[in-house]
Amino acid sequence: FQVEALAANHVDVLYSKRSYNKQKGSANENTPYDEVDIDFMHALSSIQFTAKTAANYGTTVIKLKNISLFGVNSKGNFAETIDESTPGTYNATPTWSAQDVLVDEANAYVYYDYPSGQTLSDAAWVMNGQANQTDLICLPQTLPANATIKVKYSINPPGDSTPEVDVTLPVKITGSWEPGKRYTYHLTLALDEIYFAPEVTDWTEEVSVVVPQI
């Protein structure tokens, strides 16, 4: 599987849990069969961001203009890896292997893009679902050495004679992304640098499909 280059084209890859010991309904031919719930899990990783300023800078305005991600792998092989040695459980251990095809800076995944800029405050702005934002659904992986978040923002000091200044800063990220996890990077923008704190949660929006027992 290869993640699409454009964030707008990112898709969620799902795999199903194994259903077992399901019984059909009554022997009465007029009684419908029991239904079987099939739960689907996320094979990829969800990447999100929040943003705020490091302090209340008074009349100095900081506006967020762009967040993009590059230096990560975009292609890999997925295996559900079901252990069938214990028929009562059929536990799955989803794994990705043979990860390659690095995303370069020129083709970075763009999470947020608003050239006019979103004015930030010292209260965190939860960006997911906002205008000008696109969900990133990325390949689980051990992050390469050059995995980078690039943030563009403007600083507008007080006074009509002081021009707005655009600042573009890269932030290296480390660690790993796992299947079915959501990674939220909390960005804090200061006048000359960016701080970030990653948060990992379960990606719990599972999809459940009900089908007739056959």
What does this structure look like?
This protein is mainly β and 214 residues long. The strands form 5 sheets. Strands 3, 8, 9, 14 and 15 form a 5-stranded mixed β-sheet that branches. A 4-stranded antiparallel β-sheet has the order 7-4-11-12, with no helix packed on it. The chain has a 3-stranded antiparallel β-sheet with strand order 1-2-16, with no helix packed on it. The protein is elongated, with a radius of gyration of 22 Å. It has strands spanning 14-16, 35-42, 45-53, 61-70, 73-79, 95-102, 109-119, 125-126, 136-138, 141-142, 148-156, 165-172, 176-177, 181-189, 194-202, 207-212.
What's the quick description here?
The protein has 214 residues and is mainly β. It has strands at 14-16, 35-42, 45-53, 61-70, 73-79, 95-102, 109-119, 125-126, 136-138, 141-142, 148-156, 165-172, 176-177, 181-189, 194-202, 207-212.
List the helices and strands and how they pair.
Layout: E1 14-16, E2 35-42, E3 45-53, E4 61-70, E5 73-79, E6 95-102, E7 109-119, E8 125-126, E9 136-138, E10 141-142, E11 148-156, E12 165-172, E13 176-177, E14 181-189, E15 194-202, E16 207-212
Parallel strand pairs: 3-14
Antiparallel strand pairs: 1-2, 2-16, 3-8, 3-9, 4-7, 4-11, 5-6, 10-13, 11-12, 14-15
